Amino acid sequence: QVQLVESGGGLVQAGGSLRLSCVASGSIFSMDAMGWYRQAPGKLRELVALFTRGGSSNYADSVKGRFTISRDSAKNTVYLQMNSLKPEDTAVYYCNALEIGIASYWGQGTQVTVSS
Question: To the nearest whole number, what is the mean pLDDT of the chain?
Answer without folding.
Answer: 94
